[in-house]
Each structure stands twice: as C-alpha cells, then as structure tokens.
Amino acid sequence: MLEQAVEHLIKNIVDFPDDVSVKSRENARGEMLRVRVNPEDIGRVIGRSGRTANAIRTVVQALSDHKVRVDIMDVRR
After folding, report:
1. What is the three-state SS of the chain?
2. Taking Cα atoms as reference points, which of 57, 50, 5 lies closest to residue 20?
3. What is the pTM (predicted TM-score) of this model?
4. CATH number at residue 62
5. How many CB atoms lie within 10 A of CB 72?
6. Tens of pLDDT, residues 4-14
7. How confident is the model over 15-51, as pLDDT tens digits?
8. How many Å apart are CA 63 and CA 24, to the nearest integer?
C-alpha cells in the first residue's frame, strides 16, 4: 500500500510520470522505499531545501505503523 501511495504522490509532481518507480525492501533498520525518477525531475521531487522530500517522508510515516525510510534517486543509478 505504501508503494502505491508514494508512487501516486510523486507521479503528480513530476514532468515524466512514466519514469517513476517505487520498490520496497526490508533491511535491518526496517522498510525502505527506493524511489527512482527521471534526472530532470529530481529537483522537483526534492524541492527547495528538501521541503518536498520531507513532506513525502512525513506522509509515509503517517500512513505507516512502522519505521519506513524513503530514498529518492534518479534513473541513472
């Protein structure tokens, strides 16, 4: 459910929604959502001083009942 929610949020922010992908992984720290976007959209998703990225992380934590980490990266990686 979290993957779909994050994907929906980010696809409505970016210029290239077809390049957005969200993958979930479990690690020692808890769940991690890896978000990949087009390199031209990375600034839009992170926002000025990281405000948009922090807002996305806040929404994810509000939706989740456990610790979730959100990593934002471009598709070149």
Report:
1. CHHHHHHHHHHCCCCCHHHCEEEEEEECCEEEEEEEECHHHHHHHHCHHHHHHHHHHHHHHHHCCCCEEEEEEECCC
2. 5
3. 0.84
4. 3.30.300.20
5. 20
6. 999 999 999 99
7. 999 999 999 999 888 899 999 999 999 999 999 999 9
8. 15
Rounded Cα distance, 72 and 45, in Å: 8
Sole residue written with tokens 């934002």 = 72
The boundaries of the domain holding residue 21 are 1-76
Provide the domain count of the chain: 1
Alpha carbons 1 and 16: distance in angstroms, whole number: 22
Phi, psi of 55 (to 5 degrees): -65, -40
**Residue bearing tokens 């992170």:** 46
